[in-house]
Amino acid sequence: MTNQNVVVSDAKSSMKVAVAIAAMSNQSLFPPAVPKPPASSAGRFIRRKPVKKLETQGGPTKINAWVDSMRASSPAKSPPSSPEHDSWMVTHPSALEMFDEITKASKGKKIVMFLDYDGTLSPIVQDPDRAFMSDEMRAAVKAVARYFPTAIVSGRGKDKVHDFVKLKELYYAGSHGMDIEGPAHGTNDKSVVCQPASEFLPMINQVYKKLVVKTQFIEGAKVESNKFCLSVHFRCVEEKKWAELAELVKEVLSDYPKLKMNYGRKVLEIKPTIKWDKGKALEFLLEALGYANSKDVLPIYIGDDKTDEDAFKVLRKKKQGFGILVSKFPKETSAAYTLQDPSEVMCFLQRMVEWKQISQRGYYRT
Ligand SMILES: O=P(O)(O)OC[C@H]1O[C@H](O[C@H]2O[C@H](CO)[C@@H](O)[C@H](O)[C@H]2O)[C@H](O)[C@@H](O)[C@@H]1O
Questions:
Q1: Average pLDDT for consecutive 10-residue bins of the chain (366 residues)?
Q2: Residue 18 domain flag
Q3: Which range is the signal sequence, renumbered to this chain (predicted)?
Q4: Is 158 strand, coil or helix?
Q5: Please, what is the angle between helix 242-253 and helix 59-72, to 10°?
Q6: Pocket test for ligand 1, best of 40, 114, 118, 180 (most atoms within 8 A of CB)
Q7: CA–CA separation, 238 and 229 (whole Å)
């Protein structure tokens, strides 16, 4: 794996990208410490003051639109045997069934693996702090990384996702790609670092604190700090309380026009309004690995989330590599192939390893 030592600054888009030699300089590349919020905060059950209506922000109609989007982020599911599902599988076949096509396309190319975390390497669970990956999955990812440069690209904070995955040899792109770090190999080695939203850190911390206070009376609501972005979880909030939660979040965000909000899987995701996403992180990592504009690379990106679509789109646009969507149910996607769930993801990773071992040996072991 090639690491680089470059500093790029793009003042126009106010994004700063730094790829630096951390070990050589022996200095922290991070801005001075801002008081660190706790990783998450659960709601408490205390009577609260009535919520002020946001007439100036579009009033209830707008909030209804928010709630509709919150519902749409968990759409009605077509059963795996429905005609809708069958026709979707024709246009988005299983990556396991298409395995030979995928490996054939990699002939003469270096495969680089990009893996989302939640819903891809770990199953979706009620409590975001308990989204552990299995030891078997960890072993599969570790084995894949032995043969192919591998990056975890997640909405989670980089350190948190690193704590879940526990593999030093990987690249980690946390905060939806806004916090990238390469594997540290030794004191003289180079580490890739990219933090295009660092100037937003104080603002994000401020909003985190406000959201924790505001949402504390909504039973089941949980605010998670992902360093350069925030998640407001409503998976455990009763649907009749969604409008109230949306109103509170909207109220806080109305003071922060430089932040935007997207809908994830039963979560409101708050991010800086910079032009950076998981697709940009993929491009950045390919460049850091020495594959900018190269035809000699085959990126494979596996993810289940709407935010992974930005990476699928990049691959589709480049006509390079494959996006693989993890979903049991038909969804609009720019991915080429599908896998049903994390257990199929693990199977796919294990097959990649077997295939690589066989192609290196040149024969099957009986
Ligand atoms: O990019 P990802 O790694 O997929 O992260 C996206 C969000 O994932 C987490 O939330 C999701 O998974 C939780 C645990 O299974 C689940 O409880 C929650 O409902 C899901 O939305 C994470 O907690 C978020 O911060 C990430 O933004």
A1: 34 37 30 35 36 42 84 72 87 96 96 98 97 98 98 98 97 98 66 92 98 97 98 97 96 97 95 98 96 94 97 96 96 96 98 94 65
A2: no
A3: none
A4: helix
A5: 110
A6: 118
A7: 24
- Closest CA to ligand 1's atom 10: 128
- Over the Cα atoms of the chain, what is R_g? 21
Inside any domain, residue 16? no
* Ligand 1 atom closest to the CA of 307, numbered from 1: 1
Quick check: CB of 305 below 6 Å from ligand 1?
A: yes
- The C-alpha atoms of residue 292 and residue 359 are separated, in whole angstroms, by 26
Whether residue 96 is found in the same domain as residue 245: no
CA distance 313 to 135: 31
Instruction: Report whether 225 contacts 39 (CB < 8 A).
Output: yes
Tokens standing for 92?
A: 């988005």
345 occurs within a structural domain: yes
Question: Based on the domain organization, do 176 and 202 belong to the same domain?
Answer: no
pLDDT for 61 equals 59
Does 131 sit in the ligand 1 pocket, CB within 6 Å?
Answer: yes
Contact 316, 107 (CB under 8 A): no
Assess whether the C-beta atom of 307 lies below 6 angstroms from ligand 1: yes
Number of domains comprising the chain: 2
Could you tell me if the CB of 266 is within 6 A of ligand 1? yes
Give the pTM. Answer: 0.84
